[in-house]
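Technical note accompanying the year-one report. For the benefit of new consortium partners, we illustrate the data format agreed upon in the data management plan: each record pairs a sequence with a structure-token string. No post-processing was applied to the example shown here.
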Amino acid sequence: MILSDFAMVAADTARSKAYIQAMIREEKYPALCIIYSEDCEGMGEQAKIYKHKEVQTDYFDVDCPIIFSLEKAGIPYVLVNSRNINSEQMTEVIRTSEEKYLIYSGYGGEILKKPLFQLGKKYIHIHAGILPKYRGSTTFYYSYLQEGKVGATAIFLNEKIDCGEIITQSVFEVPQKMVNADYIYEPYIRSQVLVNVLNKYIECGGFAPRSQENEKAEDYFIIHPVLKHLALLKMGYQENSGE
């Protein structure tokens, strides 16, 4: 199924791979994928030389290049040779896209600036935490330390960090089998919430988001390495830096 109202804005990250592979598995394709990177040529070369293999995993194949996945599924894409989501080139590509909803999967720490919000688009972001309780950075770990569970929330982005209207959210148990937290499990749970977003849209013919304004909120900053290490030891996970 091609979702004509949806495009995806994808940086070259594990998270983007998780999103794209999840949508392909569910046969819910965006009408367009806008890929941006400082090395789009290199991404294309990786796709050409990639030797496809059937990977047995509960999550996704982090080694599969984004362009390979898109071409195999027949999903149209355009390349923007810039790492800056707010570049003039990216703004123009988004401006000329026909899709109303843009699934945003950018590089870590990026913030969309005002010009992008003036294009008449709705940006769907999947935050790795239950909002508004866990706003900010590395909330995957704060949530686990405080509650023993993790979660993800789909929102419509606005100019305030993690304050947009909530589309849907889910809580997940931490699996017993060891898995890389930053590059596999955290992107995976986000991808599952994205699938829920698309299913809700198809079932309801639209969205019915709710405001966060009257809910109690907490803001978190990048977790201290010692706290992160303790969380990973408790999970039994492999440690790695996140995106």
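Partners are asked to follow this layout when depositing records. The two ends are 30 Å apart (CA to CA).
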